[in-house]
Design goal:
InterPro entries: Adenylat/UMP-CMP_kin, Adenylate_kinase_lid-dom, P-loop_NTPase. One of its GO terms (molecular function) is ATP binding. Keywords: Kinase, Nucleotide-binding, Transferase. There is one protein chain. The protein is an alpha/beta fold. The chain has 7 helices and 7 strands, in the order βαβααβαβαββαβα. It has a 3-stranded parallel beta sheet, with helices on both faces. Strands 2-3 form a two-stranded parallel sheet. The chain has a two-stranded antiparallel sheet with strand order 5-6. A hairpin with a 4-residue loop joins strand 5 and strand 6. The chain is globular and about 45 Å long.
Length: about 210
């Protein structure tokens, strides 16, 4: 049993890292954005549904009776971290520490498919057809808070909210921070860390 989360500012590559973890270690990737989209769709805007979904956050490895999931983007605040404590105690917190300028460039080039949450980056992960989702053929949009004028304020807000969360997990000895500007260069270190805790089902090179 392994209870773990992946933290990082907007544009840090949390989703990419979690997808690779899921493939490499036989886990399921769930994001806080996915919880919110599902709660709005299924609960008609009932934010309590997102809260109830949080009860399924623990990440486990091939356990027969427990969900095999890698949560990303949660907890975002100290209050959420304290709420998570009531559900389970985390064994591992992976924190992605990416330079401000890198984040600003990534976010400004990011477009999404609203219905699914699929994310594209016009610089290193563009859609096959400009402005069109690869799977559905529907148009992509740029979120208001991904526009250049909003990015700086968004990153400052994250930093202020995340600092006490990071300090909390650091004080517990479960925090592992990885710094860099490229996910492909950070990934081998994340893979090595997890390989010491749970057996992989795919090699690092396959991801």
């Amino acid at each position: 049993l392994l209870r773990a989360v992946v933290l990082g500012p907007p544009g840090s590559g949390k989703g990419t890292v979690c997808e690779r973890i899921a493939r490499s270690f036989g886990l399921q990737h769930l994001s806080s954005g996915q919880f919110l989209r599902e709660s709005l769709r299924d609960g008609g805007g009932d934010t309590g549904a997102a809260g109830r979904a949080a009860s399924h956050l623990p990440a486990t490895h091939r356990g027969p009776a427990l969900p095999r999931r890698v949560p990303t983007g949660f907890p975002r605040t100290l209050g959420q971290a304290e709420a998570l404590d009531k559900i389970c105690e985390l064994d591992l917190v992976i924190n992605l520490n990416i330079p401000f300028e890198t984040l600003k460039d990534r976010l400004s080039a990011r477009w999404i498919h609203p219905a699914s949450g699929r994310v594209y980056n016009m610089e290193f992960n563009p859609p096959h057809v400009h402005g069109i989702d690869d799977l559905t053929g529907e148009p992509l949009v740029q979120r208001e808070d991904d526009r250049p004028e909003a990015v700086a304020a968004r990153l400052r807000k994250y930093k202020d909210a995340a600092k006490p969360v990071i300090e909390l997990y650091k004080s517990r000895g479960v925090l592992h921070s990885f710094s860099g500007t490229e996910t492909n260069k950070i990934w081998p270190y994340v893979y090595a860390l997890l390989s010491n805790k749970i057996p992989p089902v795919h090699s690092e090179e396959e991801n």
